[in-house]
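Box S1 | Example of a co-folding query
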Amino acid sequence: VWERCLRVVKESIPYASYETWFEPIRPVKLIGKVITIQVPSQFFFEWLEDNYVNLLRKALDYAIGKDGMLEYSIIVDTGNERHKPLTMNVTKAITPAPGKRDNFERDPRRHTQQPAKDLDSLQLDTYLNPNYSFDNFIEGDCNRLARSAGFAVAQRPGVTSFNPLMIYGDVGLGKTHIVQAIGNYINNHFPEKVVLYVSSEKFTNQFINALKNNTLSSFTDFYMKVDVLVIDDVQFLSGKEKTQDTFFHIFNHLHQLGKQIIMTSDRPPRELDGLQDRLLSRFKWGLTADLQAPDLETRIAIIQKKLQHEGVFIDNDVIEYVAYSVSTNVRELEGVIISLMAQASLTRKEIDVELAKNTLRNIVIEQSREISIDTIMETVADYFKISVADLKSKSRKKEIVYPRQVAVYFAKEYTDLPLKSIGVHFGGRDHSTIIHSVQSITELIETDRSVEETVHKLKSYFR
Ligand code: ADP
Ligand code: MG
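Box S1 (continued) | Returned holo structure for magnesium ion
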């Protein structure tokens, strides 16, 4: 039955959302017309209820019928029994209520079973991915400081002077790998410690949700209880003042108690525009270590490790060819290896330099596909069912202004055009109008769920 529900869901939302919000769900049981699904956290459950309730209703109608009902079971982690997540039956959130605009009702029992302090029970899992370890992280000059500082922190969390530990570097150079490895190491060697890994985006979303649901104090309490906080990609906190205030609060609290804080960023702290000075100054209390692009030998070693892990043998000259050709980014390097293996098994050809050349050629072409401002304008106009001429027009109608701002936002994000020439494309608007549009959409993404979804959807068209 759940499979049938998923089919409806899959057709209705972008794949990225599906992957995030529906793939982690496990069907548990079906009794009569009530299906129970297990979700990973309270937060997850609330998100589904806030964003997908109508869709779920539609899916239930299709899979079970109008009187189908959905029950959630939320994985609750109690803190002292961290390794045995308890499953708690919480909610019957969706009941059919024909004729109502919002066709569901919250079960009143939810409120008796779930006191306002849900987050207190530390229900989130650690979000650690056991595939990232120090063992499978190849050391080279490019990453030696970051790796060894990370390892020191993993062995003595909160005790070294590397608190906070801040690791920065370009995308695909192993930031997430290292900090996850630290988390896993601590998790394995200090099982009594509560380790939490969170991306800054997720942190921000949780914060916004907590604001909305009046659960801010549970949110901060929750974070203040961890022993090791890993927060990935802090550059995303840029410009998000309220989120930063709360993070500042949490940071101070944890630091004072000698808890370990680990952060990553795609640039050095001094270049983190849009982050409050008081936060930046605290980042400097500990150690900042950078990751550089790997040198040739490190790249070869990374490829070999990867092949060994996959149990695949490739000639050294192919390995070297790939290592020579892809020099900036480990993720790319892995991508090439994976498509090489896929190609070889599809075409039943041997992996030789010839095949490697072809594979690389395809990949490079795909990457350089630029998004032009014309594509952006056409796509956005299409999406909102207006014309490109409308986007360029002087119209101040709401139905035009908002799409126009969205298009400007994407032009700024996805092209290298200077603001002035973006202005020219949009019917000769001046550069302050362009800045204003970008700012207002950036803010709306933070505060307005429907704007966030629109932008997310459009993004998926551009990919
Ligand atoms: P970032 O977070 O900096 O964008 P990731 O940590 O996601 O980068 O790394 C991208 C990919 O490259 C991951 O699959 C990671 O395991 C791999 N990787 C990066 N550096 C190394 C390394 N030194 N040794 C082995 N694998 C690495
Ligand atoms: Mg990362």
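The first strand starts at residue 26 and ends at 31. Residues 77-123 have pLDDT under 50 and may be disordered.
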